[in-house]
Amino acid sequence: MAFSKQHKSVMLKSYEQLLKQSQAVFVIEYKKMTMKEVDALRNKVRDAGGQLHVVKNTLMGKALDQRGIRHTTLEGTSLMGFAINDIPALAKVFIDQTKNTEVYKLKCGYMDGRQITAGDVKSLAELPPLPIMRAKLLGMLQAPAGKLVRTIAEPARSLAFVFKAYSTKDEQPAPEAA
């Protein structure tokens, strides 16, 4: 379907905006997909905190060029997933979608201003989700502080046990002689 120049410029601006908002972009090639399958994939991507769009390769190439992202020529049919919030979650959706099917094929991705391979996307999919990573980081940051507090409090605690032992020693009745 032919698009007017005005419509193409609107699409180009929308692609640029999506690239600007995204932390990473993943590309899959699709064949013989129904609209129902595209909508199901969109819902999975949305649940992962991203967006999924069928893109015009030439316009997306121009948008990538304008953002300063080096890329190879996009060919064939392209579905692009834009990771707005959680990169590993979107990568996991794309990897799960391309497993054991001939309909989808993972092409590549873009992250930090450079193109990444399908293998890199698989590695990202193996990372734990963002909330788990945050919890682990918080635990690692809190551990030294907790250790410091216990170390500082230990002498006072030991002294308190000694005082308590002396105070209860006087209260015990003397043993009776038989």
Any overview of this molecule?
The protein is an alpha+beta fold. It has 2 domains: 5-127, Ribosomal protein L10, N-terminal RNA-binding domain (Alpha-Beta Plaits), CATH 3.30.70; 128-170. It is 57% helix and 17% strand. The protein has 6 helices and 5 strands, in the order αβαβαβαββαα. It has helices spanning 5-21, 35-47, 57-66, 87-98, 118-125, 130-171; strands spanning 24-30, 50-55, 78-83, 104-111, 114-116. It has a 5-stranded antiparallel beta sheet with strand order 2-3-1-4-5, with helices on both faces. Strand 4 (104-111) and strand 5 (114-116) form a beta hairpin. The longest helix is centred in the C-terminal third of the chain and has 42 residues, at 130-171. It is elongated.
Briefly, what is this?
With 178 residues, this protein is α+β, with helices and mostly antiparallel strands.
Measured by DSSP, the beta-strand proportion falls in: 15-25%
The domain count comes to 2
Number of strands: 5
List the total number of helices: 6
Helical amount? 55-70%
Given as residue ranges, the uncertain stretches (5+ residues, pLDDT < 50) are none
Structural class by sheet pairing and helices: alpha+beta
What series of H and E elements makes up the topology? HEHEHEHEEHH
How far apart the termini lie comes to: 111 Å
